[in-house]
Amino acid sequence: MNNSDVMSLTAGLLAATGSLVQDIHTGVVAHGYSDVRPTHGFVFSLLAPDGATVTEIAAHLGFTRQAASQIVDELEKKGYVRRGPHPDDARARLVELTDLGRRCTRAAEQAAMEAVRPWVELIGEERLLALRDELLRLAPAGPIRPSW
Q1: What contacts 30, CB < 8 A, 6 or more positions away?
Q2: Is 104 within 8 Å of 80 (Cβ atoms)?
Q3: Residue ranges per domain, the chain?
């Protein structure tokens, strides 16, 4: 690949990512969750299965522990998450989604479906799934974090 190819690939991936994040956020807002930001979605994606500590959230986002704690404070005040005892570490607090947080996460999943629909129409489901598979080969472990 020459420099021009690399730069256009980079630009295309970043533009697609930015567009996808914005489209999902717009969809979440349209579903009635106007008090969340795109960064919150990255937190929700980590918390959805089993919860996480603030330290784990910070590592996931690539933020400081203090910045992650401020985000958790904000989400807790809005009712999307709660802190509770950690089942395996008495010194740690586990941050988990509340019912409101789970509903918002489902709205984000629906918004993602809506955001990807034009991509399916443009290049077809088979090619899009092949692209997904290749991207997962390139970055199998993530993390999924804001790119800004």
Answers
A1: 111
A2: yes
A3: 3-138
Q: What is the DSSP letter of 140?
A: T
Phi, psi of 39 (to 5 degrees): -60, -35
Q: Which CATH number fits domain 3-138: 1.10.10.10, 3.20.20.70, 1.10.3720.10, 1.10.287.1490?
A: 1.10.10.10
Segment 21-80, tens digit of pLDDT: 999 999 999 999 999 999 999 999 999 889 999 999 999 999 999 999 999 999 999 999
What is the pTM (predicted TM-score) of this model?
Answer: 0.88
Residues 61, 39 contacting (CB under 8 angstroms):
yes
Measured in residues, the chain has a length of 148
Q: CA nearest 40: which of 108, 141, 110?
A: 108
